[in-house]
Amino acid sequence: MGHVGLRWGWGCCVPNPLLLLSLLLSAAPFGLLGEETRQVSLEVIADGLDSPKNLLHIRAVGDNSTLHYVWSSLGPPAVLLVATNTPHSALNVSWSRLLSPEPDGGLEVLPKESIQFSSALIFTRLFEFDSANTSDAAAKPPGKPYPPYSLTEFSWNNITDSLDPATLSATFRGQPMHDPNRAFANGSLAFRVQAYSRSGRPAQPPRLLHTADTCQLEVVLAGASPRGNHSVFGLEVATMGQGPDCPSMQEQHSIDDEYAPAVFQLNQLLWGSLPSGFMQWRPVAFSQKQGSRESALSCQASPLHPTLEYPLPQSPIVRAFFGSQSNFCAFNLTFGASMGPGYWDHHYLSWSMLLGMGPPPVDALSPLVLGIMAVALGAPGLMLLTGGLVLLRHKWHSEYQSIS
Ligand SMILES: *[C@@H]1O[C@H](CO)[C@@H](O)[C@H](O)[C@H]1NC(C)=O
Ligand SMILES: *[C@@H]1O[C@H](CO)[C@@H](O)[C@H](O)[C@H]1NC(C)=O
Ligand SMILES: *[C@@H]1O[C@H](CO)[C@@H](O)[C@H](O)[C@H]1NC(C)=O
Ligand SMILES: *[C@@H]1O[C@H](CO)[C@@H](O)[C@H](O)[C@H]1NC(C)=O
Ligand SMILES: *[C@@H]1O[C@H](CO)[C@@H](O)[C@H](O)[C@H]1NC(C)=O
Ligand SMILES: *[C@@H]1O[C@H](CO)[C@@H](O)[C@H](O)[C@H]1NC(C)=O
What we know:
The protein has 404 residues and is α+β, with helices and mostly antiparallel strands. It has helices at residues 17-33, 95-98, 316-322, 343-346, 367-377, 380-387, 390-401; strands at residues 39-44, 55-61, 66-72, 78-84, 90-93, 107-110, 115-130, 144-145, 149-150, 154-156, 169-176, 188-195, 214-222, 231-240, 248-253, 265-270, 277-281, 284-286, 296-301, 305-306, 328-335, 348-357.
């Protein structure tokens, strides 16, 4: 576990027909459900004070439900996820409470009875490791740790300036408040948030399939001076536990697909049984803006642990919504290893994930892979089975053509 083989290659293997069959079967229902759309709005909620206290509310309204994503850089960067079963639920913010030492009740989604699911993610620390003397690519940690950057001690841009209602996106860009070595003099850590009103797939790898129920987060470290020649970076992520347990982490395997060549895995964090929330990502990061095979790094996730043993930086928005509950769980993501491409190549690192509520999107197979399978299996039975997919091919085909 843990080690991701980044074997880039198009001369695709055709494994066990049973696996292919089960992939086909699991791929079919998603497409047949069709695409749901939502009315998505992004709003920056201002506090009327001088320094920006970024609070971004993404409201995604469907026929019978509303999803609320509340992103903030108050304290460590964090997001609240709240799903309600009415198209009329609303976010209520009390800034005086939110900014007080006891923010409980400062954020509410009303009516309270409509809430079907709620949770949160908090991005607490940026790690940097010196992997120079680490020859084992799967070593954990990937080298000698430098002192971590606490994201609570970052200052962030005014989110209003990056808000783009046309693309439903906004970017939190930050630097350490105290940066004695001027490591971030020309650099920043950015959290680019993107909402969607319908399903689709972005042009940039890893091309995660999204739906109107999801948001994408892209984390980009760019231009910061590393503290060594072989710095590997990592990110600590905390979330709410479910009673005494931590949310579950899943690894799904898929065959080599053109949407994410040679990344055979989809990682998922599930907060509970459905309807629930999820975080979904491919275990890959990129060392260049134009993500490609050459710039792909593996991304490793540690297991989730309860954080009772060590203090977690407080997120005012999480406290404001959930009160002073304390069962948090955390895990680490590390990007790259001592070998292969790394941050050192271009002083650039990007990693993306989806955050959503409801059933997680299930990756359908691309036309190329379907074609390979049809040739490889050639069985009339398979053709019958895929008959139902023919209607969908049209859509996939046009999507495929828009790639290159
Ligand atoms: C943030 O930027 C917007 C638009 O440029 C501006 O109206 C607002 O006053 C700024 N907020 C702060 C606190 O500087
Ligand atoms: C919304 O609710 C109505 C009435 O309960 C139902 O008929 C309809 O199918 C629901 N729509 C969706 C998209 O779930
Ligand atoms: C790595 O190895 C070199 C040579 O053996 C040594 O000089 C250096 O201090 C080591 N660096 C770390 C971080 O251990
Ligand atoms: C930042 O960039 C400027 C101009 O490109 C350069 O002169 C300066 O040395 C850089 N500073 C750091 C700390 O990298
Ligand atoms: C980085 O590499 C350069 C050239 O290879 C070397 O001179 C320098 O000492 C290295 N720095 C560190 C911190 O290892
Ligand atoms: C993440 O990694 C850091 C540095 O190796 C370690 O101190 C911390 O305990 C790890 N956190 C989790 C949740 O594994």
